[in-house]
């Protein structure tokens, strides 16, 4: 597979240099072949793309390039010049990317996502810029993403772009939506046939920026048609803001792309078991936009089994660096567990003795105000979109509003008698 790896492509605090080195070390033994650098909040990647990196910054990039040679996970630098792109900017783009050609960067992406849309002429202009950069450095492997990256059918922009772009440059696509609940085989093949090239999937899972910031996506890989693997030029898996926790979703996705016949649930259980101490939190943070409620395994627990699960806690065995990264969600887990514990006491005793009812109600209210979502998603916004030919519209699934496991037990324990 031409592209199989992870993408640091979210809005929010970029990974540290050490986190990038670590994830490349981790990706290598799992069969990945690329790690793409695309943090939206690096100004020199996007908002101030014309500015060169300084000596210390380039030294860090050079270390990442070397790590790629050592691990077999090529470091891919990407740049987003579209916010202020004009005809004639090709030389500025080529000049900026010379820094990366000079340090031996093996792969580069020129990205045109999340900018003002346009028609065929704009698509052709973006493609010419990409092609000029690729022609200047022919020994580098190239990919790109267009402004119309979440569509079912070609737009005039896409047609103009792909007609002007050499076939050897791969074009990324997120599926029919920015975050698609599912991707069917015919959606990929019909679009790639219409554009005359296979598509590279920019997989927006387990990413958690924007309205998803409170969600920690530690669940199974979303539903994707097995045929997608054969019809695509590969996949780049967009990470969460949390580099360590991202490994669960990335590992599950890699397993699918290496074996599309694998069972999603079984793979998830195997992957979670690889990370010491993570299972309690992973069970509580497996929710995603297509299944925002608590997992069936937690919903099916009786009072005795739920109490045992909660009393075991969520921190035992987690390495220190994981504890530090996950602290907000571990605290949220503790808060929710405390509420549920009080509710279980009420149910066991058959009445609200010793003020437990009032205490449980007060803790329940506090738990519901937390941004961090555990035991299901109470409130979050996902970019589940549709393109009607002129506008990108949010589908009703984009707004997740529901009850988590705590809410269900609290309503059961505190309902009026």
Describe this structure in words.
This protein is α/β, with parallel strands linked by helices and 417 residues long. It has two domains: 3-273, Glycosidases (TIM Barrel); 296-414, no CATH class. Helices cover 43% and strands 14% of the residues. The chain is built from 15 helices and 14 strands. It has helices at 17-27, 55-71, 90-102, 120-136, 156-164, 185-195, 227-231, 246-258, 264-273, 279-284, 296-299, 303-312, 320-349, 356-368, 405-414; strands spanning 3-8, 34-37, 74-79, 107-111, 141-145, 170-173, 182-183, 199-203, 223-224, 232-238, 379-381, 385-387, 392-394, 399-401. The strands form four sheets. It has an eight-stranded parallel barrel with strand order 1-2-3-4-5-6-8-10, surrounded by four helices. Strands 7-9 form a two-stranded parallel ribbon. The chain has a two-stranded antiparallel ribbon with strand order 11-14. Strand 4, helix 4 (120-136) and strand 5 (141-145) form a beta-alpha-beta unit. Helix 13 packs antiparallel against helix 14. The longest helix has 30 residues, at 320-349. The mean pLDDT is 95.
